[in-house]
Amino acid sequence: MADILHRIGIKDATPQRVYDALTTVDGLAGWWTDDTKGNGEVGGTLEFRFPPGGFDMRVIDLKPGEQVVWQVVGGPEEWIGTTVDWHLRQDGDYTVVLFKHQGWAEPVEFMHHCSTKWATYLMSLKSLVETGQGKPSPRDVQISDWH
Amino acid sequence: MADILHRIGIKDATPQRVYDALTTVDGLAGWWTDDTKGNGEVGGTLEFRFPPGGFDMRVIDLKPGEQVVWQVVGGPEEWIGTTVDWHLRQDGDYTVVLFKHQGWAEPVEFMHHCSTKWATYLMSLKSLVETGQGKPSPRDVQISDWH
In this predicted model, what pLDDT tens digit does every residue of A58-81 receive, in sequence order? Predict the structure, then answer.
């Protein structure tokens, strides 16, 4: 099994504000994709769509202001059954976000791509919370021939 | 063991131009850090310095236009003995870069940070080759309280 790991710090934010951006359709649409639908409560499913395809995430754990865990239930076959775990904490003026996309069966080339793409979306989340403006799809940062 | 993986595509580039940016002091200084010194040939050591510290990399394998492999011989203790592997190939109009920073003993918080920071430096490499202008340290993208 292989994991994608990331860490960002969001300045002058609170964990609760970041949590809202990870658990509400409006918040998620502000940094990941305009085309976000569904229900961000535990047991609900969030549907994220992008020009090349999309992901359905079942919300499996929520600790307000601290943690969000999704299980991938729809999308590319390499993603099915993997989990996305967000951990939040306050550290001085920053909210630190520890991100894990866990349980890839193999470190395939698509996983390399998703790792870099997640980093650009995390920077979009940081920008959304710090400035009010993220870069969600379809205005996302293009990293390669794959988008 | 845990690995950091990334993939970018550099438009209208050739693998040889990207290879030059990974094997010459001028090229490396254009996207990673202004403060780059040393010898990029096999058996040589490259010294990269940043405001918070730095890394010494022994060049252990080179395949012109295809692959660059470094072993970390100086820097933070979590980095010592890890390897950084760059694989290049042409894919249509793009040079695809597959990046692996392999052999982390544990998936510590610092590894999460380095994963995101590598992504921003890979985007700097892409920008350098595509536009002539990267974002090397100390003008690098700030991702958190850690820099």
Answer: 999 999 999 999 999 999 999 999
Using a CB-CB distance cutoff of 8 angstroms, which residues of chain A are in contact with residue B109? 7, 98
The parent domain of residue A48 ranges over 2-131
Name the residue facing B98 among A8, A112, A119 (closest C-beta).
Answer: A112
pLDDT for residue B147: 82
Q: What is the DSSP string of A48-113?
A: EEETTEEEEEEEEEEETTTEEEEEEEESSTTTTT-EEEEEEEEETTEEEEEEEEEEESS--HHHHH
Residue B43 in contact with residue B58, Cβ under 8 Å? yes
CATH code of the domain containing A82: 3.30.530.20
Helices (H) and strands (E) in chain A, counts: 3, 7
**Nearest residue in B to A93, CA atom:** B145
| Domain count along chain A | 1
Please report the ipTM that was assigned to this predicted complex: 0.97
First to last CA, chain A: 25
What residue ranges of chain B have pLDDT lower than 70? Answer: none
Closest partner CB to B143 (pick from A107, A123, A141):
A123
Closest chain B C-alpha to A112 CA, distance in angstroms: 4
CB-count burial class (<10 Å; 0-12, 13-18, 19+) for A102: middle
pTM exceeds 0.90 for this model:
yes
